[in-house]
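Trying the structure run again after the queue cleared.
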Amino acid sequence: MKLISRIMLNMVLILAVGLSVWALVFYYSLKSRIIRETDSALTQVSEQIMQRYLSGQDNRQEGSNNLYTFNLIPVPEQYAQVHKNLSFSEGEKAIKGKRGEQAVRTLQTIFRTQDNQYMALQVSTPISAVHNLRTALLWGIAILYIALLALVLAINYAVIQYSMRPLYNLLDWMNHFDLKSNAAPIENKTGVQEFRQLNLAANQQVDRMKDLYEQQRQFIDNAAHEMQTPLAVCLNQIERLQQKANLTEDVQMDLYKLQRPLRRLVKLHKDMLQLTRIDNGVYAETTDVDLQAIIRQSCEDLNEIFAHKGITYEIKSDSPLHLQMNDTLAHQLAGNLLRNAWLHTPEGGKIIVEWHHHEIIFANSGEKALDGKRIFERFYQGEHKENSNGLGLAICMSVCKQYGFQLAYHFDSGMHRFTIQF
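Done. Tokens:
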């Protein structure tokens, strides 16, 4: 989840809770205020009716107008003692001049007349309008809640997005940073102190990485060149000794045993140097290469070692396969994948190469799957340590990365498959 998404999610949760509490408090406060106003009006009307009744101005037992209805009911003293306090209630009541029963709020007041008769005064007022007002108020608060939440989130999103631009610029620069290219330090103008410190730390770390990378590159390059001369001298001396006629068979065997690891060391040195050159971008020149012709030529060159293990090979496509890449690296890619196929193919097996418009597949017979997670690691040899230095597939992966190709391995139906997608 992105940082801004996490921030917005947290804000949604906090605002939703906060606004919900506010909406409930606001709604019930207004509802309570409406009820208090209604009760206050009922109390005033009740007092007026009692005053007129006690003064003899109005002796009606019931009456009504557009807003209120009242009833005067004689009650026993015992009832009056129990209900001597004002009591409010809500219910339904038939009101003169209106159809059916109406929702009303009623105030009951107990008072005593001059002749000691207890009377219960019930004053009622319709509250259907109040109910409608409550419903409208509830909908209004809900709409206001949603609008306010959306507005606050939109404003905060815009503000956060604008404020986080320096961070996004830094992340974009780091994602596109490449040690092999001489990328300029990031110029991320911002007035925020934390972002300035982050930019400074990133530039300092990149400078350290560049220095370490350059030191490593120079060390490998120098070590490879320093090894080249003594290895060549040793092999030449062994070959000169082997040409002497007076050597015994034991000496010849000892020289052969010495020559084998030296040749492996020469091959390792050559592959390390080649890998270093690829990583350092030495093979930057590109041309239009016909990979089909290169594959066919590589198969012919390796035909002798294929035949030694009884391996047959088949090229299933005759269409040209033209790519824009370095010719040397194209030969290296095809040759290494074919040699890898030979290495992992049992005696009497087969190697199949086929390609389509956007991919090429090198398939060979096999008994069990290789370690797909480590097979492209440098110096990983698996079970075939005798004829491998563990750099062939690493070189192939470096070549593919240089041109944006996708190199993948999987095992299916007794066949190892190395697929390059262009």
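Residues 3-55 form the longest helix (53 residues). Worth checking whether this holds up in the mutant runs.
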